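hey so i finally got around to running the thing on that chain from the lab meeting. sorry it took forever, my laptop kept dying and i had to restart like 3 times. anyway pasting the input first so we r on the same page abt which one it is
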Amino acid sequence: MSAVLLSDKLAKQLVNADSPIQMITTDGTLLGYFTPTTPRQMFDIDEAELDRRHELGGGRPLAEILADLEKRS
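ok and heres what got predicted. didnt touch it at all, straight out
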């Protein structure tokens, strides 16, 4: 993947984005889209929550999931 160094001014405009943004030139040409990364705090989970989820159990073994997928194809 390539990277583009942004000016401080543009970076300040994009840093708080919470949804995709069209990147357009001054003459109206669509260059592409900027999709912000998901805010980290959405994934911050404390140890108590991890323990609670672990205690719930659930899920299926990968072998079982793969066997079900094989039956469908």
